[in-house]
Amino acid sequence: MRVLIDSGSGCCNGVGRAISTAEHYLAEHGELFSLGAIVHNDAEIQRLSELGLRTVGYDGLPSLRGATVLIRAHGEPPSTYALAREAGVSLIDCTCPVVLALQRKIAAEYSGLSARGGTVLIFGKRGHAEVNGLVGQTDGHAVVVESMADLEEKLRTGVIDPSRPLALFSQTTKDPEEFAALADRLRQDAGNLEIFNTICRHVSSRHKALKEFASACSVIIFVCGRESSNGKVLFELCRSVNPRSYKVESADELPDGIFRPDDTAGICGATSTTRWQLEKVAEAISRL
Ligand code: SF4
After folding, report:
1. Residue 73: CB within 6 Å of ligand 1?
2. Of 30, 112, 123, 248, which is the most exposed, with the fewest CB atoms less than 10 Å away?
3. pLDDT of residue 98
4. Torsions phi, psi for 84 (to 5 deg)
5. pLDDT given at position 164
6. How far is the CA of 44 from the centre of ligand 1 (A)?
């Protein structure tokens, strides 16, 4: 059996930058707090926790006066920075530059739109950390659209009024085809619509390349954390072109009896999956 690791898989720049910033800080200071999980990937969190990284929630901030807290690549709403100031913690801000630019774009668009009675729409997962950070740029007024069915419901019930100015943005890790379909649907009804395709280039280029990789292999092992929303999207993409696609968090979860001697097994992962995890799974398969 041949085992291939997808050359485009591994952490994206934003997540990789947050992890290496944490590693450097920990090497010097031995302890660092991350506001929320630094990456949706339990194995990597375990590795970093052994180096001294502690994950805290918003309610944990007041008890950390004087400590240093990392803001992860997903970014945070303005209210978090106010909370941190009040709590007296120092921040290491690892918001991905792409997310930061998107936050600023949404804030600027919102200030113009709200004066004209318009609405900012964000295609994304409600409650996801990045989406919370984006909604926070509009004082909580942006409307999050999760899917086509959700959009139809919001148009039907008047939550989205197409007679008013609208601006559509996307969470950086969403599916480009779904975003295009939502934009097309809105164009049918909206008279004044601006569309900002803000899907990260790293993600959109991955879609095409990953589809090609998954089609070229006879079996796909997709490695990602259970909580990774980008992992769910990319795994479904693999499965759409290769029905023999399996999602695992680590080599321990490889299902029995899925490989054949003449298989080409392709190993790939989400934007939060590290190279070392892909390599470990590849090694385990090579030993079978
Ligand atoms: S997917 Fe893109 S925008 Fe999101 S953290 Fe990674 S590099 Fe940044």
Report:
1. yes
2. 30
3. 97
4. -65, -40
5. 96
6. 17
Res 202: pLDDT: 84
Residues 107 and 162 in one domain: yes
Q: Catalytic: 152? A: no
The H-assigned helical ranges of 9-96 are 13-29, 42-51, 78-87
Is there a contact between 5 and 273 (Cβ–Cβ < 8 Å)? no
- 38 CA distance to ligand 1 middle (Å): 13
Domains identified in the chain, total number: 3
List the domain range (segments joined by +) for residue 87: 13-95
172 — phi, psi (to 5°)?
A: -65, -20
* Token couple for 188: 């049918």
DSSP 138-178: GTT-PEEE-SHHHHHHHHHTTSS-TTS-EEEEE-TTS-HHH
Query: What stretch of H or E contains 56?
Result: strand 53-56
Regarding the beta carbon of 281 and ligand 1, being less than 6 Å apart is answered: no
Secondary structure tally for the chain: helices H, strands E: 10, 12
User: Which of these three, 140, 163, 195, is where a domain ends?
Assistant: 195
- Which residues, given as ranges, of the chain have pLDDT below 70? none
Q: Choose the final residue of a domain: 195, 218, 242.
A: 195
What local confidence, expressed as pLDDT, does residue 207 receive?
Answer: 86
Is 89:110 a contact under the CB 8 Å cutoff? Answer: no
Does the C-beta of 99 come closer than 6 Å to ligand 1? yes
Positive or negative: CA dihedral 271, 277, 283, 288: negative
pLDDT at 206: 86
Instruction: Fill in the DSSP letter of residue 136.
Output: G
Tell me the pLDDT tens digit for each residue of 171-186: 998 988 999 999 999 9
Q: What is the CATH number of the domain that holds 64?
A: 3.40.50.11270
Q: What is the pLDDT of residue 122?
A: 98
223: CA distance to ligand 1 center in Å?
18
Residue 83 shares a structural domain with residue 106: no
- Both 174 and 127 in a single domain? yes
CATH at 139: 3.40.1010.20
